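Write out a record, fold above all:
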Amino acid sequence: MKYTAAILTVSDRCSRGVREDTTGPALVSILEQEGWEIVTARVVPDEFEVIKAELVRCSYDLDVCLVLTAGGTGFSRRDVTPEATEAVINRVAPGIPEAMRSAALKVSPSGMLSRGIAGLRGGTLIINLPGSCTPATESLKAILPALKPGVDRLRR
């Protein structure tokens, strides 16, 4: 099976060019080392409809196996990535964010503050990661061993 992925960095500052996106490239690197083909990596602002549209594009138009979002999972009023994800998924996958938060809590008590969710839209697994590089990469590493087996089951 060919494992395809899309990375979506959600950040007002990165989308305006005020700050460099380091999280997206770090996630790309980790997935590529594990044999994933990155179909697209984009930066979008913290806008509900924009995030939603990009998730739909990645899942249906690009038909990727996996979409990782980075950012927009905190407590700020502009953090709407989980809500946009919830609006497009058909089924939730609660064990994935539970595992990420469990791993994050071993490092810092603020790990419990991530509101990220995970779910399925058609044949695509969508997972919300934190926006900062270290928490995002640590979260991905915590769930990485389960991603290919999960996608194999999803795509049967």
